[in-house]
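User: Structure please.
Assistant: Input sequence and predicted structure:
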Amino acid sequence: METIRVQLLRAGARVPSRATEGSSGFDLYACTGGAEIEVTQVPVLIPTGIAIEAPPGLDVQVRPRSGLARLGVIAAFGTIDADYRGEVLVTLYTTSAGIRHVVRDGDRIAQLVVSRLEPVRFEVADALAATARGAAGHGSTGR
């Protein structure tokens, strides 16, 4: 089992945790110092009060929480690189002008999902192998 080290940067910061034993993501908590932050369609950075140290070879991603997404509050996907040591910040926004959401200290705002990175290389090719789909893109396989 790999270990991700977590530094609590200020009072109220919480270590990411799983809501249930079967959860694939670890909840990230807002650490606002008691301030309330309004989320609208304009993206806003929400502090978590933590910094992490992930071992090389792990892919740590910030992802939306489905409960907030159901309300129209989206966390932007993000990657936390193995060499980043700054505070984990979550970009939140709403999907329409009529949605207002207030983030308070300790709220679950996003989740961290950890996976293993595969070593790969890229190779320039003159042509790619043919498939039935070919170059058909966006929406070509149906809705």
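The CA atoms of residues 38 and 102 lie 4 Å apart.
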